[in-house]
């Protein structure tokens, strides 16, 4: 690999000598975000309520929606909790969903609907092929009783960025409700209601806004939320009640993840200072481009063609070499201060490397050197995947 010159790291190195997390969240956070957690907060206290109000406002602004037509409802738990609450809210008990899937998170939504007892039909495109607007159009023509369409924006299991805007336009043309899982894209890939007419959008604290885990949030059209009273299957995942209580009291309905919330406010301030969504997209795109170019120089191949590669995470095929073993590769990289992610494909051996979190091109350059060194230590001199 040629050793081009890279800018020196603008971003602080991980604080306690811990490895960089090149994973899709939890991810490497900044020192300022970690430091925001060095204080305890009373969950009923006005100071904390103000933080909650501030992050709700900021998130609505990021989605390009106003307070009178949409609401932002944060919910304790990981992203899946928020997806489950959102699906239970958006789909009437006698409704029917069309689930567009091309990976693990679309499949998970269908599994949630089975738990919820909601009828659904699925368009399953396998490990990574994108659902196409024409297919969605045909399915909606053939199934006029569908009330709600679910799509994952960036399907993190392969790294594909699905054609959300085109599909959203089709769904709206049919007058259906659109639920978007933008868990791993919101904050770094533009997603505003003028471009993507969504009804419900779900994301979480520990992805592109670079907070820590602890809660997810749902941005939902007020009409949809208001119609959902009494629909939820679960007390703690009742999005309507969470919203109604927050509106009335300014507080979270049950114990809030206080430290995660204040860390998130700090992360939002840094997000704004970096230039908002555009600034973050630019840095993640540079990370991805440097990563993909460097890996290709080493002989690796990406799962996806360039036009489908998200700036969030990239899947690489594992080398077809007798000495390559993912567990050993992972350990060699961890020893060199980088944590990567296993693959999730059913068709081939693969692994994933994230481009998000507090990393820049200088860190990616260090990673590429660490990969070259790890391969040398393993005796892998050819990275071409199996045919
Ligand atoms: C697109 C997408 N949806 C849902 C989830 C589930 O989130 P969690 O693991 O926080 O429950 C993830 C997690 O990475 C994701 O990437």
TrEMBL record:
InterPro entries according to UniProt: Aminotrans_V_dom (IPR000192), NH2EtPonate_pyrv_transaminase (IPR012703), PyrdxlP-dep_Trfase (IPR015424), PyrdxlP-dep_Trfase_major (IPR015421), PyrdxlP-dep_Trfase_small (IPR015422), SP_NH2Trfase/AEP_transaminase (IPR024169)
N6-(pyridoxal phosphate)lysine: residues bearing it: 207
Family per record: Belongs to the class-V pyridoxal-phosphate-dependent aminotransferase family. PhnW subfamily.
Cited HAMAP family: PhnW_aminotrans_5
Keyword Cell inner membrane: no
UniProt binding sites for substrate: 352
NCBIfam families associated with the record: PhnW-AepZ, PRK13479.1, transamin_PhnW
Role summary: Involved in phosphonate degradation.
This enzyme's EC code(s): 2.6.1.37
Entry keyword set: Aminotransferase, Pyridoxal phosphate, Pyruvate, Transferase
Catalytic activity: (2-aminoethyl)phosphonate + pyruvate = phosphonoacetaldehyde + L-alanine
Highest taxon listed in the record's lineage: Bacteria
Cofactor(s) required, per the database record: pyridoxal 5'-phosphate
Protein name, UniProt field: 2-aminoethylphosphonate--pyruvate transaminase
Listed GO biological process terms: organic phosphonate catabolic process
GO MF entry, a single one: 2-aminoethylphosphonate-pyruvate transaminase activity
First-tier enzyme category under EC: transferase
Subunit architecture: Homodimer.
Residue ranges constituting the Aminotransferase class V domain according to the UniProt record: 47-312
